[in-house]
């Protein structure tokens, strides 16, 4: 944050950073040979809605878009609000590339409406060594990091470090700053 | 591609700029006055900086100790930690180092610490009990904004001049009691030296009060900036508005002995714990609640229009 923003207490949300997003497609194909890491065929994008009627028009457009694209690809979708006031678009598709492209499409639609800075993350579900795991793409920072759950409200940090190493092998840009590996509790898939 | 951004409030930025500019002028005038009177400002300056550094590096521990806030782990308060984490991710900042809870019924919250990595965010048990989830979220976002804007740093450094002037005032007071102002002025006539001392005394008092007023104004503007940031991060200005009105109503209705303990952290609370009984709003560290709510309503209208 710039000196002037600090001096004058200005705030602005960081704009989305989508450059590295597609690295996940190539990574997934190289994962097919692994037995300890499988995709759950589920993914989602999470954003923070604005409490205004104007935002509702975007919301209905996203729902239209999802209806149309799910007809074309056979993707199942669901829009879920969680207890943190954030909204999830959850997708379910056997074809990983469909998941990635629909998430990208939703992201684009949100950005085109000028709400790009309200997106938080794109999340891909995995099964890692029998545990619930996620690859989280931080839309603000433009990097991935792992989240491995053991139990309802606990993270398995050791498994996360191992998974991060796996991700780096597959040339996924992993977030270097560990303090930004934010948990997302209550992921609805 | 259009980009909607609610980030700017030019009026607020201008006001802050003007306040800081006036503070700067006051610094220059004060140091000029000291030189004119033959007092070396360096000694006083060093004293003030040491005081500030002490405040600066101790602020988190000091406030935690005086407010008796207890640091809670994610296991103890999972929901609170999860909310702060989401907000930090949304605002693209590191999660504060410590989250604390004060066991009092008065709903309130504060943030302190010199930088985002060493910051503390504290809420009272009353806040968690009286407000619903989205309102708590809005209050936490307001406190996170204080951290992100580094309000502790800005206000601490700005207050160097108050410390300098206050120190000099005391020094001059004791000196006048024990006769004579420093030896450096002996070559001047006795009457002249007395006049100079009187001028310095008057000038220092003026600087002391003016700088207080300016710093309080700055503090009020930064409150408004944090309100704004909260509305932007949560996307819901009215949640903060309703939280503010709930907090301010509860605070002045329920009498609490605990209030005395929280006096120290006053500047960093979302609403000051001690009500200034209607003395001019010029001497308040926080803007009036209805004024803050009005501004949040304006933001809501802005968001409804969609820019």
Give an account of the 3D structure.
The complex is a heterodimer of chains A (189) and B (307). With 189 residues, chain A is an alpha+beta fold. In chain A, 35% of the residues lie in helices and 25% in strands. Chain A has helices spanning 3-8, 23-31, 53-73, 96-112, 157-169, and strands at residues 37-47, 76-81, 87-92, 119-128, 131-138, 143-149. A 6-stranded antiparallel beta sheet of chain A has the order 2-3-1-4-5-6. In chain A, β2 (76-81) and β3 (87-92) form a beta hairpin. Chain B is mainly α. Chain B has one domain. Chain B has 10 helices and 4 strands; from the N terminus they run ααβαβββααααααα. Chain B has helices at 10-36, 41-67, 78-91, 125-130, 133-148, 151-158, 160-177, 190-234, 237-253, 289-305, and strands at 70-71, 98-102, 109-112, 120-124. Chain B has a 4-stranded mixed beta sheet, sandwiched between helices. In chain B, β3 and β4 (120-124) form a beta hairpin. Chain B starts with 9 loop residues before the first helix and ends with a helix. The chains are: A alpha+beta (189), B mainly alpha (307). The interface between A and B is large, with 46 and 57 residues.
Using brief descriptors, characterize the structure shown.
heterodimer, A: 189 residues, alpha+beta, 5 helices, 25% strand, globular, B: mainly alpha, 4-stranded mixed β-sheet, 10 helices
Uncertain runs of chain B are: 181-186, 259-265
Kindly report the average pLDDT value of chain B.
81
**How helical, in percent, are the residues of chain A?**
25-40%
- Tally the beta strands of chain B: 4
Structural class of chain A: alpha+beta
How far the N terminus sits from the C terminus of chain A, by CA atoms, comes to: 34 Å
Q: Largest interface: which pair?
A: A-B, 46 and 57 residues
- Stretches of chain A where pLDDT is under 50 for at least 5 consecutive residues are none
The fraction of residues in strands of chain B falls at: 5-15%
Walk across the major sheet of chain A and give the strand order: 2-3-1-4-5-6
């Amino acid at each position: 944050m710039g000196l002037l923003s600090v001096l004058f207490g200005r705030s602005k949300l960081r704009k989305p950073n989508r450059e590295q997003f597609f690295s996940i497609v190539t990574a997934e194909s190289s994962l097919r040979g692994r037995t300890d890491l499988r995709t759950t065929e589920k993914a989602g994008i999470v954003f923070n809605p604005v409490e205004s009627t104007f935002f509702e028009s975007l919301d209905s457009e996203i729902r239209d878009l999802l209806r149309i694209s799910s007809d074309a690809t056979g993707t199942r979708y669901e829009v879920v609000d969680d207890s943190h006031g954030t909204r999830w678009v959850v997708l379910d598709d056997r074809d990983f590339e469909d998941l990635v492209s629909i998430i990208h499409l939703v992201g684009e639609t949100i950005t085109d409406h000028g709400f790009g800075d309200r997106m938080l993350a794109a999340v891909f579900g995995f099964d890692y060594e029998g545990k619930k795991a996620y690859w989280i793409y931080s839309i603000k920072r433009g990097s991935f990091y792992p989240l491995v759950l053991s139990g309802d409200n606990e993270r398995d940090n050791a498994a996360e470090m191992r998974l991060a190493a796996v991700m780096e092998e597959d040339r996924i840009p992993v977030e270097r700053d560990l303090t930004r590996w934010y948990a997302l509790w209550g992921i609805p898939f | 591609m259009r980009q909607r951004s609610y980030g700017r409030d030019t009026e607020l930025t201008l006001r802050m700029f003007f306040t800081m500019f006036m503070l700067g002028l006051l610094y220059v005038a004060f140091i000029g006055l000291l030189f004119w009177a033959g007092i070396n400002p360096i000694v006083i300056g060093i004293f003030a900086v040491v005081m500030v550094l002490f405040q600066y590096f101790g602020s988190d521990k000091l406030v935690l100790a005086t407010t008796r806030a207890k640091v809670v782990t994610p296991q103890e308060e999972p929901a609170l930690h999860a909310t702060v984490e989401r907000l930090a991710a949304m605002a693209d900042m590191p999660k504060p180092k410590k989250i604390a809870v004060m066991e009092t019924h008065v709903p309130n919250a504060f943030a302190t610490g010199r930088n985002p990595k060493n910051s503390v965010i504290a809420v009272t048990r009353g806040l968690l009990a009286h407000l619903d989830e989205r309102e708590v979220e809005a209050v936490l976002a307001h406190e996170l904004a204080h951290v992100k804007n580094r309000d502790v740093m800005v206000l601490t450094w700005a207050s160097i001049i108050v410390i300098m002037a206050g120190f000099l005032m005391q020094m001059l007071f004791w000196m006048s009691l024990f006769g004579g102002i420093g030896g450096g002025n002996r070559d001047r006539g006795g009457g002249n030296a007395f006049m100079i001392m009187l001028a310095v005394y008057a000038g220092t008092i003026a600087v002391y009060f003016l700088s207080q007023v300016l710093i309080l104004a700055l503090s009020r503007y930064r409150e408004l900036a944090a309100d704004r940031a909260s509305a932007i991060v949560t996307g819901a200005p009215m949640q903060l508005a309703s939280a503010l009105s709930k907090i301010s109503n509860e605070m002045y209705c329920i009498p609490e002995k605990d209030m005395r303990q929280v006096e120290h952290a006053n500047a960093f609370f979302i609403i000051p714990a001690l009500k200034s009984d209607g003395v001019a709003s010029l001497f308040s560290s926080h803007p009036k609640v209805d004024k803050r709510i009005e501004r949040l309503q304006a933001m809501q209208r802005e968001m409804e229009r969609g820019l």
